Amino acid sequence: MTVTTRFAPSPTGSLHVGNVRTALHNWLWARKHGGRFLLRIDDTDLGRSKEEYVEGIRADLGWLGLDVDGEERQSARFDLYEAEFAKLQAAGRVYACYETPEELDIRRKILLSRGLPPVYERKPDGAPVPDGIAPHWRFRLDHDAPIEWTDMVRGPQHFDPKTMSDPVVRRADGSWLYLLPSVIDDIAMGISHVVRGEDHVSNTAAQIQMFDALGATPPAFAHEALLVGTEGKLSKRLGSLGMASLREEGIEPIALVALLARLGTSDPVEPVTDVAALVESIDFARFGRAPARFDEAELALLNQKILHHTGHAAVAGRLPAAITPARWEAIRPNLATVAEAAEWVAVFDGPFTPPAAEAADRPVLAAAAAAAPGIDWGADPWHALTGAAKEATGAKGRALFLPLRRALTGRDHGPDMGELLPLIAKDQAVERLSAG
Ligand code: GLU
């Protein structure tokens, strides 16, 4: 069996972290098994679907490195849906309904008031058909076929179709609801595994009977627990947190991928720079049933950790030319984002005016300024510089190192000075030490 998964967004908005997580799990599963990952654009709702969102979805997947092995669009497949619908109709598995939403609502309330489950009540055979009303269509569940599957995340699932309403699959205007086209496509595209959020579990129960009715074996299902924000529910912020804003904040795609791959699983979130380890480790049996908590602060921290062992080659295209491999390696432990590297160009090459020195620090700076011109910049200049200043002034520890770091970099904290100083032009260093 070829593993084939699909990510099936409706292009009615931009992807947010929750959708991206589903896409990622589908992609990881396909890659782990040497299978195929398809993008299926669920654009049956022609009024709400927009081309700009389709383009945005492609761009976001590309940015994340989730390459697709094919793209399909539901709007190009209406003929197929029509043909399969006709078969179900001929077999009596879809049937016309004439109730108005108001009538259905009243029936639901009556049933509830009697303490009964508000399940749709089929009309008896031969019930009168109202004139001049276009019907909508329901799928006839087989009440005698219990619905069972072993979910890859949730374990054994069982639904009694008698307790379920026959789902509406087509509206009176002929347009499609999500349920049936999705099944038709999953069959036609050879989807082996459907990975999606647990909000689809009851859809799956109905869809399993649709697979059967269309003569197909249902795929395997993995329904993952939903993603929630730190405050415990799917917040507005999380629901709208798009890739563009994360990109602007300097989040690396691999950081988001590393977090979303493991969040809510029993595997630890790790600062990987390569997706291979995540492909290797994906296992739906290790996904938890509790909601996965997404924390932007955790993402920012992971991003930072990942940068600390990201090689120059991986980011060179986004770095100023002055940030050479050696300079990148010196500064990366102090970066929260790649963009911050640009702030270090002036520290290396100038122009740079050190902050005014405090009076107590002047002797150390003066001693260092006097020694600097004679120091061989190619051989551990920091050791030589601090040694000379210490000898001349008797200063040591913080009183020795901090004034020098401040004068040379303008900061109180930063990369190891032994690594940094040889990368700062000597004439610049001499100038900065003398400025105080
Ligand atoms: N378009 C559906 C959704 O976004 C797809 C669900 C599925 O994966 O089957 O919810």
UniProtKB/TrEMBL annotation:
Tell me where in or outside the cell this protein is found: Cytoplasm
State the UniProt keywords alphabetically. Answer: Aminoacyl-tRNA synthetase, ATP-binding, Cytoplasm, Ligase, Nucleotide-binding, Protein biosynthesis
* The name this protein goes by in its record: Glutamate--tRNA ligase
* A Pfam entry, by short name: Anticodon_2
Which InterPro entries did the record assign?
aa-tRNA-synth_I_cd-bd (IPR045462), aa-tRNA-synth_I_codon-bd_sub2 (IPR020751), aa-tRNA-synth_I_CS (IPR001412), aa_tRNA-synth_I_cd-bd_sf (IPR008925), Glu-tRNA-ligase_bac/mito (IPR004527), Glu/Gln-tRNA-synth (IPR000924), Glu/Gln-tRNA-synth_Ib_cat-dom (IPR020058), GluQ/Sye (IPR049940)
**Annotated motif 'HIGH' region, positions:** 9-19
Q: Report the superkingdom from the record.
A: Bacteria
An example molecular function term from Gene Ontology annotations: glutamate-tRNA ligase activity
Q: Which family does it belong to?
A: Belongs to the class-I aminoacyl-tRNA synthetase family. Glutamate--tRNA ligase type 1 subfamily.
Q: Which Gene3D superfamilies did the record assign?
A: 1.10.10.350, HUPs
* Residue ranges of every copy of the Glutamyl/glutaminyl-tRNA synthetase class Ib catalytic domain listed in the record: 3-267
Q: Which residues bind ATP?
A: 236
Per the Swiss-Prot or TrEMBL record, what residue ranges does the short sequence motif 'KMSKS' region cover?
Answer: 233-237
Task: Give me the reactions it catalyses.
Answer: tRNA(Glu) + L-glutamate + ATP = L-glutamyl-tRNA(Glu) + AMP + diphosphate
Q: What class of enzyme is it?
A: ligase
Q: Is Glycosyltransferase a UniProt keyword of this protein?
A: no
The residue ranges of the Aminoacyl-tRNA synthetase class I anticodon-binding domain are 329-435
Please indicate if the UniProt record lists Ligase as a keyword: yes
| E.C. number(s) listed in UniProt | 6.1.1.17
What does the subunit comment say?
Monomer.
Query: What is the protein's known function?
Result: Catalyzes the attachment of glutamate to tRNA(Glu) in a two-step reaction: glutamate is first activated by ATP to form Glu-AMP and then transferred to the acceptor end of tRNA(Glu).
Q: Which GO terms describe its biological process?
A: glutamyl-tRNA aminoacylation
